[in-house]
Amino acid sequence: MLNVSLPYHHQVLAEYIKTHGIIRSKDQPIIAPNGLAQKWLIDLRPVLLNADMLDAITDLFWNQYTEHLPFQIAGMEVAAVPLVTAMLMKAKQRGIDTNGFIIRKERKTSGLGKSIEGKITDDPIILIDDIFNSGASLEKSCAIIEQAGHKVNAIFVIINYKSPKGMAWQNHRQIAVNELFDLSPFDVSFDDTSKPYDHQYTITWRFYQKGAFPFHVVPKSTPLMVEDKFYMGTDCGKMFCIHAKDGQAIWEYDVKTNHSKGIWSSPSYYKDRIYFGAYNGILYCLDAQTGAEVWKNPCCEFIGSSPLIVPDHNMLYIGLEHQRPRMMGSNAAFDLDTGARKWEVPQKKYQHGSAVYYKDIDAVIFGNADHDVSAYKAKTGETIWKHETQRSIKYAPTIDQERGQVIATSFDGHIYVLDAKTGERKAAIATNDICYTTALVTHDKIFAGSGDRHLYVIDANTLELIKAIDCRARVYSSPRLIDGRVIFGTSGGQIIELHPVTLEIKAAAQLPDAVTNAVSANVTGNILYASTHMNELYAIKRERV
Predict the structure, then answer these.
(1) Is 242 a residue whose pLDDT tops 70?
(2) CA atoms within 13 A on the CB side of 149
(3) 498 close to 519: Cβ distance less than 8 angstroms
């Protein structure tokens, strides 16, 4: 029966949605994002694939918006593909000249590496979607459009849930949202028991360097903050010194490499010098204030590892990649003052892993491409112990000083916990994909991400899994404790703020590209700094709601 409180075209569309777009648990099981049963679900794809209904939606849109021309329309795949296409065709039928473009959920990693398909003009932008619930997908669309130098002026959706999170998002963004329906015509309602976020985020500046290589959505050169400056390597082979106040480059140093990975080595700082490696196989030491070269050592073919500095020995430790049939990689130590090689331990495979220092036994502990975790005497490189894994370890391990444990995450999908003095295995917690992160130990817990889209929380004492938190995107960003919160990024571009005791998500921010490196902050924790895999660094103001 038609709802007489709605105009005719709205009535027909509403009835079709009720019949074909509302799925109820009495008809088939529905699984919620948290894994629990869900009473109902709205899926408008069958509606958008019906020509008559799509025609009705576009008529309703243009009846409402024609008087607001000129503007252009945009939306994020998948729902926006039929919507934007049909609206452009309807505009053509009505003699309306307008522009449209599609936003990709993830930047294309090949070809031109686009995140937007189509051309953006200078006209105002109306963002189109099928459903508005929490505002998460709309926020990503806004972030990508802003990255391109434009802004969203209005939003049009078919159904607006008018949820507390959605209303809070709209209030923060100050963007008008117009809908064809709320939930009332469809005999569904929901009790939103989720707590509102206690912090909100606003981007204050963005540093960007051309030449990013989007194919690799992995951890790259993590920006290092030293007082009021950042040091960050880029795919294009330049090391930048960036002012933390405004994101302006102070100096740049070009390593002049044609390798697509440029500089993935995360810089280290000691006594006003910056140390890093590059994919031209050269280890560098630069003056931190001017970028002037102090020394360089062409020690191998490639360097993707990050240097560990141990002042007690006046040495840095780093993994090297060679092109030798019997020694494709190595772990090596270099003098901080001269760059002279002090010792080297051969590896059979390219060595991308980095090290951590364990003072109790004066050891540097590497995760190795040779499928093991190994501890070496820091002074001589003599092996203290070795623990075998099933696949490579690409990122530095973590020392749990309180319990004498070393935690290493592996490409075999396990989070290994070993005795730091002996290398004896204490636990191996399985995930469902590769692990490419350095774990965090805090509040008697171990936090480590996985490519299976979860952040794993492990009891540091019993070594039992407490919880695997669904982050809906790969977690390669190493979690850090900032202002009493565990903060990390995802390949979906989100920055997530987690309470370390309750494990509740307390806040989230959205960037346009994958956040694969660790997030940092200023001293007070009210400004976060996050980089993406596209050579960007963002300063994000963090305010309590």
Answers:
(1) yes
(2) 6
(3) no
Backbone angles phi, psi at 202, to 5 degrees: -140, 125
The Cα 150–Cα 144 span in angstroms is 9
- Asked if residue 461 lies in contact with residue 403, where contact means CB atoms within 8 angstroms, the answer is yes
232 and 240 Cβ atoms separated by less than 8 Å: yes
- ∠ CA 208-123-53 to the nearest 5 degrees? 110
| Burial track 102-115 (b if 16+ CB lie within 10 A, e otherwise) | bbeebbeeeeeeeb
What domains can you pick out in the chain, each with its CATH number?
Answer: 8-189 (3.40.50.2020)
pLDDT tens for each residue of 383-415: 999 999 999 999 999 999 999 999 999 999 999
Per-residue CA distances from 56 to 21, 88, 130, 216 (Å)? 15, 14, 14, 42
Residue 277 three-state SS:
strand
Calpha distance 12→155 (Å, rounded): 23
CA distances from 489 to 147, 211, 389, 453, 492 (A): 18, 22, 26, 11, 8
Relative to beta strand 152-160, strand 176-181 is: parallel
**Which two tokens mark 331?**
């772990």
Q: pLDDT tens, 482-528?
A: 999 999 999 999 999 999 999 999 999 999 999 999 999 999 999 99
| Residue 24 near residue 39, CB atoms below 8 Å | yes
Model pTM? 0.93
Helix/strand/coil for 24: strand
